[in-house]
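Supplementary Methods. Inverse-folding protocol.

Structures were first reduced to a discrete structure-token string of length 650. This string, shown here, constituted the complete conditioning input.
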């Protein structure tokens, strides 16, 4: 069954035959044939261009196609429609243009976001891509398909459409647990082997300028593939490889040499190109063998005595009106030479293990052939492995013998010249063995043992296991809390916010009414006159010492107490100002009383105190401000003070 969506967005389930050719990094080709039937009778006469098609593979298939051409044939009193369709993504991009010229240095993310803007499709970059590459120009009347093609070439990418997502890879691949064999599930196998540019040897030259002879190269090396020693193949030399200097060339000869060695290895190892095509047989006994684009799978053609690791790059499928597959033709290319023998063990060992453990069931009639295929694959890799008495199966990296992998009853162990380290056991994967790469949390959810800590997609969620209503969710640019709050610590270790509540109170409060010294008759020794608190020399003469202007309190949340003030004196009088702590909380050392003096006609009548209170304790503290006169002037000579700032500071 196929789903058609009309121009009013109404969906219609129909009975139709389909022929679908799906290719890696290319537009799909879909043909839908609709025969007049009881199911289709109500809609067949209305179907037209720009209708959409979905559910081609099955009901879970979210990929959408758009009808570009409708052919109608009358057979007697019946109607047969043939719809030619292309993917909705390609259709939309081909109808959207950038008219203005865009020049600059655009990253891959920027280009993909601009290509897919307002299309309904979301680009995703899977894995690592080429760095240091920028697109410098696009637009000027280009449609978005043209820009996409340039981006694919510039960054050397492949893509796969998955519903509303378009996934981009440097090398798209999916490890699978089935085997393709002409003794099991393949027929009519053909192989095309292109050896026109097949090499087993290359001389490589680096640190060389464009146009200069090879003899001027600062770095040179030879790379020879093991097949060069094969008497039937021998030494097949590639043209000299030049790594031309540019602005990104390192000044370190070792860096250049490593880059040159990798380039030479890639040139030789990838030089033999193979293409296969075969009919795939869907069988009830093999329900888990469901080929998809970019599957990497072991393939054996016994009629050609040929076995290799391949990647599916095209699938052409015919389905009947019920959606059952009646024909599937696979096209696949092989993996690089250096991967093939090593891949044999992965596929064969898992296949045999799943069969013997009962995870996979196949019919008795196919059992002998299936086991023969797997056995042959295992035999092919014996030269790559050592079967030891105590360590189990040992595999060594031919390019670096210090790198070893052990497989025995304990699990999978790895070594880089040191003591073997357990990487995988029956209990799971050991995280300590992971040294590089990334975990795609769109595909994997990471949970703590109590389920209280989860990373999934672009979100990190922590939940209180005792109270599920209390949780924190972190997404790019956003932190959201429920039932609690954020706690922050200052550099000195003191909290500035607790459970979402700010805990920094920098205010200083004065007592009201003022806490002013009085004489025996209850008369204030200091009074407010205009913008100043004032007193006279005559009152000072009665006291002979400091008397209080007021008392103040504050919560100790800052390191320093700041007091700025302005004084006035007349008729020869002077003034002294003092700050003195009182009622100090237990366990806290009081700050020393601090005083400043000013005389009549002082050139700078401004003063300030900056008192170190020590590490904040969050406790309430109090202090007096006191003043006194001097012995100069007359009894009526005034002295006063005005405060311009009182605050706590860091």
């Amino acid at each position: 069954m196929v789903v058609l969506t009309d121009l009013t967005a109404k969906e219609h389930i129909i009975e139709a035959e389909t022929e679908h050719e799906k290719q890696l990094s290319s537009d799909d080709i879909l043909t839908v044939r609709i025969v007049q039937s009881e199911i289709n009778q109500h809609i067949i006469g209305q179907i037209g261009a720009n209708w959409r098609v979905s559910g081609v593979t099955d009901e879970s298939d979210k990929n959408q196609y758009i009808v570009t051409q409708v052919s109608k044939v009358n057979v007697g009193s019946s109607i047969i429609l043939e719809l030619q369709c292309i993917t909705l993504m390609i259709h939309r991009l081909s109808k959207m243009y950038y008219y203005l010229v865009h020049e600059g240095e655009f990253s891959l993310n920027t280009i993909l976001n601009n290509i897919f803007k307002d299309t309904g499709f979301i680009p995703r970059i899977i894995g690592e891509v080429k760095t240091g590459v920028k697109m410098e120009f696009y637009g000027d009347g280009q449609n978005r398909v043209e820009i996409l093609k340039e981006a694919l070439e510039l960054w050397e990418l492949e893509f796969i459409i998955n519903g509303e997502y378009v996934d981009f890879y440097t090398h798209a691949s999916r490890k699978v647990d089935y085997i393709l064999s002409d003794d099991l599930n393949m027929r009519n196998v053909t192989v095309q082997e292109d050896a026109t540019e097949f090499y087993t040897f290359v001389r490589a030259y680096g640190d060389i300028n464009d146009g200069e002879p090879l003899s001027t190269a600062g770095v040179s090396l030879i790379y020879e593939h093991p097949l060069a020693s094969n008497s039937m193949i021998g030494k097949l030399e590639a043209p000299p490889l030049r790594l031309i200097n540019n602005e990104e060339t390192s000044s370190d000869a070792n860096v250049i040499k490593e880059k040159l060695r990798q380039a030479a290895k890639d040139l030789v190892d990838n030089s033999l190109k193979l293409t296969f095509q075969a009919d795939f047989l869907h069988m009830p006994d093999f329900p888990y063998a469901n080929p998809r684009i970019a599957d990497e799978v072991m393939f054996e053609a016994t009629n050609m005595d040929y076995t290799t690791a391949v990647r599916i790059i095209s699938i052409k499928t015919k389905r009947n009106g019920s959606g059952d597959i009646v024909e599937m033709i696979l096209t696949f290319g092989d993996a690089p030479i250096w991967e093939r023998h090593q891949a044999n063990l992965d596929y064969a060992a898992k296949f045999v293990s799943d069969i013997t453990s009962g995870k996979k069931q196949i019919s008795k009639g196919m059992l002998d052939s299936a086991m023969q295929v797997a056995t042959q694959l295992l035999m092919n890799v014996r030269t790559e492995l050592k079967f030891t008495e105590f360590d189990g199966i040992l595999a060594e990296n031919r390019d670096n013998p210090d790198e070893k992998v052990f497989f025995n009853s304990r699990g999978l162990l790895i070594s880089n010249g040191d003591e073997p380290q357990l990487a995988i056991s029956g209990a799971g994967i050991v995280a300590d063995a992971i040294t590089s790469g990334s975990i795609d949390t769109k595909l994997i959810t990471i949970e703590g043992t109590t389920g209280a800590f989860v990373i999934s997609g672009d979100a990190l969620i922590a939940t209180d296991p005792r109270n599920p209503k209390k949780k924190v969710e972190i997404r790019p640019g956003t932190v959201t809390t429920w039932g609690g709050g954020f706690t922050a610590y200052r550099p000195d270790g003191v909290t500035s916010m607790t459970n979402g509540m700010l805990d920094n109170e920098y205010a200083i409060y004065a007592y009201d009414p003022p806490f002013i010294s009085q004489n025996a008759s209850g008369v204030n020794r200091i009074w407010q006159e205009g913008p100043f608190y004032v007193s006279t020399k005559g009152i000072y003469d009665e006291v002979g010492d400091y008397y209080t202007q007021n008392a103040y309190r504050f919560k100790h949340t800052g390191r320093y107490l700041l007091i700025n003030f302005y004084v006035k004196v007349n008729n020869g009088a002077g003034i002294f100002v003092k700050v003195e702590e009182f009622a100090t909380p237990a366990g806290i050392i009081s700050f020393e009383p601090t005083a400043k003096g000013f005389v009549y006609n002082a050139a700078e009548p401004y003063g300030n105190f900056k008192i170190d209170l020590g590490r904040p304790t969050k406790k309430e503290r109090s202090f007096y401000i006191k003043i006194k006169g001097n012995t100069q002037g007359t009894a009526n000579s005034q002295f006063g003070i005005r405060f311009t700032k009182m605050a706590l500071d860091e």
